[in-house]
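Hypothesis: this fold can be encoded by more than one sequence.
Test: take the structure tokens below, design a sequence, compare later.
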């Protein structure tokens, strides 16, 4: 029998705020976190905007020696994990360590470190390469360092499934607890690749917005005037606990995680299939896992990247899955404010899903002034947040290579 899994702690580091409270207030107020790139000289790049982490002091979470040895994605994961563990008031003793694990996904890992070390190689020779270059770059080292910090000796993993990595991490952690491999899991996603190679490479794919003169208006999912996604960085971490483990220690519960679906498009390296049948199967699988019907969902946090094909095909998939219930459904893309955090998106958006249930607020899709008719008759919560008794949330993430992942959260009832 599948065990119940509760969400008892949240941590987030995003372009709209460096804590869960700041980030949630930011998206509920419709504030964009997109601005000019400051991390490197982007004058030669077509795209000069991104969603950067701002005013963040890493030394609150790591010491100076660690800061020199870790890529930013590791630092961000440690920061968000610190927040989530503190929020959950959770301490893992030696007697519990083997029943507590960590799964943190990342699409790319430490690309900025590889860029920097390649420059050393070219300019000064191999003798100047840091001995910490590989550990700083490996995608699984975010999970590794969180496990080391909190002595988590149970399951550890790092899904690398492009933009769906964070959602895969949370879903896989959910199953670890549900299937009795662990009692506590630290789970989420992280990315920190606002760097020359990533911006240049996504520009070469013609995937990024070039609205450089109006960065706050650049990410505009489901709007006719969208011209691509905005690359961002960030991390979202959740503490998942088995039902009795959480209640026995008197933990605060944000929501219950009840459904998880994963599918493959088996279609194209970057584009979804027409109608996004892979997303249809994925949402349907998550509903089946949650023992719910389409009519049971109140709000969908859409993948909603602000790219022409993804937005339209996701909207079509939502209409296919929800049928007549789509007229009663609220759908929004918080990427309109955060930008696209790649592997970090699923973690942050799961945090927002839990907060939507807790506070009864659906964040808006900002910059939605001319809805694309091809998206159909869906309420995308344009520009202004909506008060609503949110009992259930579906969170969608779809990645390159046809990797689809969907979570379902619901209001906790003992």
């Amino acid at each position: 029998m599948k065990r119940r899994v509760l969400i008892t702690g949240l941590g987030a580091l995003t372009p709209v705020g460096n804590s869960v409270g700041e980030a949630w207030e930011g998206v509920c107020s419709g504030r964009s976190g997109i601005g000019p790139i400051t991390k490197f000289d982007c004058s030669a790049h077509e795209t000069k905007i991104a969603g950067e982490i701002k005013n963040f002091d890493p030394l609150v979470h790591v010491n100076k020696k660690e800061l020199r040895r870790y890529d930013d994605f590791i630092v961000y994961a440690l920061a968000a994990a610190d927040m989530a563990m503190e929020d959950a008031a959770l301490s893992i003793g030696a007697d519990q360590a083997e029943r507590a694990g960590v799964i943190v996904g990342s699409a790319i890992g430490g690309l900025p470190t590889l860029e920097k070390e390649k420059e050393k190689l070219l300019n000064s020779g191999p003798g100047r390469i840091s001995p910490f270059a590989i550990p700083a770059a490996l995608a699984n080292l975010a999970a590794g360092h969180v496990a080391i910090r909190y002595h988590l000796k149970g399951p550890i993993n790092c899904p690398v499934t492009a933009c769906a990595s964070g959602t895969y991490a949370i879903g896989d952690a959910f199953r670890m607890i549900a299937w009795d491999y662990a009692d506590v899991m630290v789970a989420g996603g992280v990315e920190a690749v606002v760097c020359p190679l990533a911006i240049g490479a996504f520009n070469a794919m013609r995937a990024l917005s070039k609205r450089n003169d109006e960065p706050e208006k650049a990410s505009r999912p489901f709007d006719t005037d969208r011209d691509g996604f905005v690359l961002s960085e960030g991390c979202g971490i959740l503490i998942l606990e088995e039902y009795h483990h959480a209640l026995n220690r008197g933990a605060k519960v944000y929501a219950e995680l009840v459904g998880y679906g994963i599918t493959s498009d088996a279609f194209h390296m970057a584009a979804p299939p027409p109608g996004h049948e892979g997303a249809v199967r994925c949402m349907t699988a998550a509903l089946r896992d949650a023992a719910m019907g389409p009519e049971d969902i109140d709000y969908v946090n859409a993948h909603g990247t602000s790219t022409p094909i993804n937005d339209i095909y996701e909207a079509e998939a939502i209409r296919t899955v929800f049928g007549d219930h789509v007229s009663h459904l609220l759908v929004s893309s918080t990427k309109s404010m955060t930008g696209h955090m790649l592997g970090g998106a699923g973690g942050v958006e799961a945090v927002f899903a839990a907060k939507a249930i807790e506070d009864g607020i659906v964040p808006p899709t900002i910059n939605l002034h001319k809805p694309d008719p091809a998206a159909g008759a869906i309420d995308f919560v344009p520009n202004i947040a909506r008060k609503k008794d949110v009992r259930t949330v579906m969170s969608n993430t779809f990645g390159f290579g046809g990797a689809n992942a969907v979570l379902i959260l619901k209001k906790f009832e003992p």
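Residues 137 and 165 are 16 Å apart (CA to CA). The chain has one domain: 1-397.
Hypothesis status: open.
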